[in-house]
Specification:
15 strands, alpha+beta, five-stranded antiparallel β-sheet, 38% helix, 329 residues
């Protein structure tokens, strides 16, 4: 017998979720493959616990007293059991009927920096009205999280907060044309309500353009920086040299914003002859014996290259990137 999730609704309206297996007739069994018994029904039948246990042991309980056993879809003395999937389908059917009947609106809100979201879980029949070109799933990629952190430092801290479906303004029009009632932050949107739709469309287009531009610039700056240090010969500064390098002003631009609390992070230095890239290497599991740069923790790895005009230009562009995209914290 396959185990599924069930919901037991008690006479006082409270619910309990539990796992159980069911047979072909719908009777429920625990992990020991013993029938679930309704204690109230057992008492009303005048049975003692010892008698029930004995019948259970012999496998005769369902034959002699099926009325005291929990069964999917049946009300036993006010106790009702249904599968979690049955509840979902039932609730979805009720909600779809309510939406199509006009008594419930599909509610949209804007999620900062990401786009429009729908506040309730839509029944499949309603969700399919929205064109696939007007809905996008965001999986909270590393690139996406980095862009969001540039836009709103600290606002989104995990991919779980970002992951989900987002909708274009066209999704609202799709629903309205199908006769579905739509609201935006509690205010009903009408098919001919051009000012609201235009305002949403303008915001959406501006966000999209900014998003795409920054992603391209992020990729370019990362690629160029990687090229500076990816083929550096093994001439990293010594520990003694790094003590002096550490006294130089820290340059914190782009993704190099200084050390983090968990022993990560990176930053830059430069003098009249060299450009330095420092990667904190003090986290648990890091190879600390590679460290040549002193920190308040386990240390960092410092690489250097002869300073060139392209490095100076990159630093200017990285500073311009920060000024354009990074909001004040």
């Amino acid at each position: 017998m396959k185990t599924n999730q069930y919901i037991l609704t008690k006479p006082d309206g409270t619910e309990r979720y539990f796992s159980a297996a069911s047979d072909s007739q719908g009777y429920l069994y625990n992990y020991n493959q013993k029938p679930f018994v309704n204690s109230e029904a057992m008492e009303k039948a005048g049975l003692r616990k010892e008698e029930v246990l004995e019948m259970t042991r012999k496998g005769t309980l369902l034959i002699k007293h099926p009325e005291i056993c929990l069964k999917v879809g049946e009300n036993v003395h006010g106790y009702f059991v249904e599968s979690k999937e049955h509840r979902r389908v039932r609730d979805e059917t009720i909600l779809e009927s309510s939406i199509r009947g006009g008594s419930t609106a599909v509610e949209f809100k804007s999620k900062m920096g990401l786009g429009l979201v729908i506040t309730q879980r839509l029944p499949k029949g309603i969700w399919n009205i929205i064109s696939s070109s007007h809905r996008t799933y965001n999986n909270g990629s590393e690139e996406e999280m980095e862009w969001l952190d540039d836009q709103m430092p600290g606002y989104y801290t995990s991919t779980r907060e970002v992951r989900g479906w987002y909708y274009a303004v066209g999704a609202i029009a799709d629903l309205l044309r199908a006769g579905i009632k739509v609201s935006y932050y509690g205010s009903q949107v009408l098919l001919g309500d051009t000012p609201i739709l235009q305002q949403l469309n303008d915001i959406e287009e501006a966000d999209k353009k900014s998003h795409e531009t920054q992603k391209a610039e992020t990729k370019r700056l990362k690629s160029e920086f990687h090229a500076f240090f990816s083929s550096v010969p093994d001439n990293n500064p010594t520990e003694e040299e790094c003590k002096l390098i550490a006294e130089l002003p820290r340059i914190m631009v782009f993704t190099h914003q200084g050390p983090t609390l968990n022993g990560g992070g990176s930053w830059l230095h430069k003098d009249k002859n060299h450009f330095y890239y420092v990667r904190n290497n003090g986290g648990d599991g890091d190879a600390w014996d590679w460290n040549n740069y002193p920190t308040s923790g386990a240390g960092a790895i410092c690489q250097r290259v002869p300073l060139k005009k392209e490095h100076e230009e990159w630093l200017k562009q990285a500073a311009a990137y920060d000024k354009q995209y990074k909001k004040a914290q």
